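As described in the Methods, two query proteins were run sequentially through the folding procedure within a single session, without resetting any intermediate state between them. The first query and its resulting C-alpha cells are shown here.
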Amino acid sequence: MRTILHFTFVLTIAGLLVSCGNDDAKTNKNTATQQTQAYSKTTPAQNKTSQSQVVQFGVTDLDGNYHSSDEWIGKMPVVINFWGTWCPPCRKELPDLVRLYSEYHPRGIEMLGLAVNDKPNKVRSFSQKMGMEWVMLMGDQAAGMFKVRGVPTTVFLNSEGEIVHKFTGMRNYEDLKKGFELIL
C-alpha cells in the first residue's frame, strides 16, 4: 500500500513538473465558450435567455478567509493566473505579469493569483518580493474547475464572466498582452 501511495505521489509531481511549462494549449474562443458553460453556475438549458454564463468558485486568501469569485467575476474583466512559487516557468513570466497588471489595472482589469500546491506564508513573502500587487488566493480548489493541467495557466474572463481565452504554459509579454486586450 505504501509503495502504491509513493508511486502515485511521484507520478503526480512528475506530471506537474512536465506540464509546468507546457506551451501547447492555446484555447480558441469556441473551446472557451464550451469551458464557460461547463464551469457556470447555470447550464444553458436552465437559463436559455442569458447569453453570459458566469464562472463561480470559492477559495481562501492567504489568511484563510473564504472568498467567492463573484466578488470580481461578472463585475469587471478578470485575469486568473494559476501559479506556484516552486514553478520556474511561473517565476520567469512574473515580471511580464507585474508590468501588464500595472498597465491594465487602471483600465479596469482585475487579476487574481491562484497559487497551487503552495503554502500561504511562502506565497505572501514571494509575491511581496516580486511586486505582485494583485489579489492573491490559494487556488487548489479552483484548479480542477478550470481544468488546469499545469502551471502557469492564465485564464481571461470578460466583464460578463465568460472565459474568452486561456493559456497553459509560460507566455511572454506580447502573448499575455493579447489576452488582456481581448477582455477590455
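Immediately afterward, the second query was submitted; its sequence and C-alpha cells are:
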Amino acid sequence: MIRNILLALLLASFLSACWKFGRRPEPRESVMGYRPVYSNDLSLLNVTAEAPKPVTKAGKIYVLGDFIFQNELGEGIHVLDKTDPNKVKNIGFIKILGNTEMSIKGTFLYANSYFDLVVVDISNWENPTEVKRVKNAFFGATMRNYQSAIPVPEKNAYAVCVNPTLGIQTGWKKDTVHFSDCYFFNP
C-alpha cells in the first residue's frame, strides 16, 4: 500500500514538471509564448478609493468589524458592509493594482502591489492613505521569481518571467520566446 502511494506521488511529481507536449525545449529554441508588457507610469501604483464594482476575479477575504474586504485579483480590494448579515452590500473598492494578497491589523491594510509591499491606513477606507511602500519586497534574489499578479492569457503556454526592474507589468504580449530566457510553462 505504501509502495503504491509512493509510486503515485513520484508519478505525479514527474507529470507536474512536464513541458508542453511532454518535452522540454532545446536551449535557444524558439517557441510561441508571452512576454510581459511594462510601463514606467508611476501613477499605476497609486492607492485610491473608487465606487463599488462587480466581483469578477474573486480572491481571499478578510473580516474586520462590520466590513468584509475581498481581493479582486490583480485589481484591488472590494469593501462590503455586513452590518446586516442578511443583506451584505458592496459599498466600495480600494484600487491597488497588482494585488493578490492582503492582511489587516488594526487600521492598517498590508497588501502586495505587484512585487511591492504596501501599508495602507484604512481607518477611513473611503480615503485610504498609503503609509509605506517597500519596493520589490516580494521579488526573489534571482530572476527565477516570475510570479505575476496578471495571469498569462492562455493555458498551456510559455511565458517570460516578469522583471520588475524593467517597469510595472501591465499585461502580456504574444511573441516568440527562447528556452534560455527566464520563462515558465503555464499549465
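The first helix runs from residue 2 to 16. We note this only descriptively and draw no conclusion about the first query from it.
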